[in-house]
Specification:
2 domains; Rossmann fold; elongated
């Protein structure tokens, strides 16, 4: 990757000279550095916040339809400066023309009216004055293919540059892989005689050839698709020697197939690159979409098995990360944070920084004090309101702790599960829909909101016709029922610890041995603990991805929490795009789904904190 904000001084600038702004780029290319870019072969067809098609190598690739495909497509364009102002004596007379050619016809351009000091402005905000007639918006402008025979630079563009020497910024996209140079030609219009030409060294590759790919799906019993095996060797499109020695590892979240994982990895790489990251990059896919395509829904109602898979994949992730070169920085989205947190806390994975993006993990796992009376009540299943929390599955560990603090069953809790992680940053959104804080009210199973709360408040209570484990959680142990009703709260409150330790008031765990004399040792077995936590122990705190973590523990502090929709540049970009005062909802996957100009500050923040420049 390279330093953002330093535009690529192109063509005649090499002999005509430029201002200090681009001198470092000039020096680099005079030393023979190659301009690296990717093919724009995903399919961004709108600015919709619904999940777009970010998977590379689409048959209906954006680079082939003759125009920029909305604001999300702009991340696939690069600023390049055609600096021809020093040739004004030749050009002003109208006898000399300027042309561009590419031997493989592998480059598209959009003419803009931007100057060199605002080269990347189209990545930050809406920009007008683009296209052949300089009268279109950047996000919908006409693109021009640079052919092998060459195209003429329009006279109106030349006139603009002559009037203002800073002008000449082009938006450039890749069309197909190529190592051929982009050539500028100065020619006599009368006899077409070439007066000067220069080729800019280029290497255009598929974006996946600029990054590594790690597939750990098999660690949890998933099938690895043909051609989607791990690729951990140095990527041909971005040598490690051109990076800064840091290695960014990204892990996707829940209900993401292998193919969609490619899209997540590619889009996160592109956004980091355009924000100025200068590190190696590895995208990780894991088996977090078990039970997908259930019934007529393209969904995974058996969420709990995917939580188990996150734990099961942690050791495999460590093995992968250990093979990667450089100092590791890791980031995860949604349930991917369960995998990464387990890898760090349970298996000792070493990373210099960890970025939690919309983490679908209980706050109490990172800070045990995040369990409050309010959150306990709001996260509880409504049928349990009125029952003392001493009887809850989430408090069963306390009954054992009162008897023997060293009993293995004391560890069957989310509280402090990942408290040993000290270098994590919580990037959350108060506008979350998937991780919306529970409110103690039963929510519709089909609601797009409260999805995480639904899973936690219904542990043990899923209807029989839905797949998933109905272990423990908020179910009732029939042994305490009175005829056709459950024991009332007043009588249940009198049940002794000795009784509920061996015959819990909540529905029994599948692993009945937990109630016996060998239960302590059984509870300490990783396989048992992971399925008990995933299936049978509900969270009493809200999700970290929708809240500030550590309000009760200053070890976290404000510097380790970032409310993404409240970041100043996000507010400005959001209001500029959707209108002043627009509610900043920042939904669960908006870090990828929203146009880059809206979420750019998040990537700048990650780069700064992770030392990725």
């Amino acid at each position: 990757m390279r330093s953002y904000g330093k535009i690529l001084a192109f063509a005649l600038a090499l002999c005509a000279g430029v201002g200090a702004y681009a001198e470092s780029d000039l020096d680099a290319y005079l030393r023979g550095k190659v301009f690296r870019m990717w093919v724009n072969d995903d399919a961004d067809k709108s600015d919709s916040e619904e999940e777009p098609v970010d998977i590379p190598k689409q048959s209906n690739a954006d680079c082939n339809d003759g125009h920029v495909n909305g604001r999300r497509d702009l991340v696939d364009f690069f600023p390049m400066w055609l600096n021809i102002s020093s040739f004004a004596p030749w050009l002003s007379g109208g006898q000399v023309g300027v042309g561009l050619l590419h031997p493989d016809a592998a480059v598209n351009i959009v003419w803009t009216s931007l100057g060199n000091l605002e080269a990347g402005k189209f990545h930050r905000e809406d920009v007008g004055g683009c296209g052949p007639d300089l009268n279109q918006n950047a996000h919908e402008a006409t693109v021009t293919r640079i052919t092998a025979n060459g195209i003429n630079v329009p006279q109106n563009v030349i006139n603009m540059i002559l009037a203002d020497p800073s002008k000449g910024i082009m938006m450039v996209e890749g069309v197909r892989p190529s190592t051929k140079p982009l050539v500028v030609v100065m020619y006599n219009k009368q006899d077409r005689k070439v007066l000067y030409s220069f080729g800019l060294p280029m290497n255009i590759v598929h974006v996946e050839d600029m990054m590594r790919w790690a597939n750990v799906r098999a660690a949890a019993g998933g099938v690895v698709g043909t051609g989607l095996e791990s690729r951990l060797s140095e990527p041909p499109g971005l040598p490690d020697a051109e990076t800064n020695g840091k290695h960014f590892v990204f892990v996707h979240g829940y209900s993401v197939s292998e193919e969609k994982a490619r899209g997540w990895g590619a889009e996160m790489f592109k956004r980091l690159w355009q924000a100025g990251a200068n590190c190696a990059f590895t995208a990780v896919t894991w088996y977090g979409d078990d039970s997908r395509k259930w019934w007529y829904l393209d969904n995974t109602p058996n969420y709990y098995v995917n939580v188990e898979h996150a734990f099961e994949s942690a050791s495999a992730l460590i093995n992968i990360v250990a093979q990667l070169p450089g100092e590791k920085v890791v980031a995860a989205h949604s349930l991917g944070n369960m995998l990464v947190s387990s890898a760090i806390a349970d298996h000792g994975m070493q990373v210099s920084a960890y970025f939690m993006l919309n983490a679908a993990v209980p706050m109490e796992a990172y800070d045990a004090d995040e369990v409050t009376d309010e959150s306990s009540h709001n996260m509880a299943n409504p049928d349990w309101h009125g029952y003392t929390n001493r009887l809850w599955a989430s408090r069963w560990h306390e009954a054992w702790k009162r008897l023997d603090p060293n009993d293995g069953r004391c560890g069957l809790t989310w509280r402090g599960r990942f408290a040993s992680i000290t270098n994590a940053y919580n990037y959350y959104s108060t506008g979350e829909e998937v991780l919306t804080n529970g409110n103690g009210v039963a929510q519709s199973l089909l609601s797009g909101n409260y999805a995480w709360y639904n899973q936690e408040s219904r542990k043990g209570r899923w209807p029989a016709y839905l797949p998933g484990n109905n272990e423990a959680g908020w179910s009732f142990n029939g042994a305490y029922d009175n005829l056709l009703s459950h024991m009332n709260p007043a009588n249940a409150a009198n049940l002794a610890d000795d009784l509920i330790r061996t015959n819990s008031f909540f529905g029994l765990f599948d692993e009945r041995g937990l109630y016996g004399t060998n239960g302590s040792a059984l509870a300490m077995q990783p396989a048992v603990r992971k399925h008990v936590l995933a299936d049978g122990i509900p969270a009493e705190s809200y999700a970290a991805g929708a809240n500030k973590v550590g309000s009760q523990n200053r070890a976290w502090g404000d510097d380790r929490n970032v409310n993404m929709p409240a970041m100043p540049s996000v507010v400005t970009a959001w209001d500029g795009l959707y209108g002043a005062g627009h509610k900043q909802a920042w939904k669960h996957s908006d870090i990828k789904n929203r146009p880059y100009q809206v979420v750019r500050e998040v990537f700048l923040s990650i780069i700064e904190r992770g030392g990725l420049r």
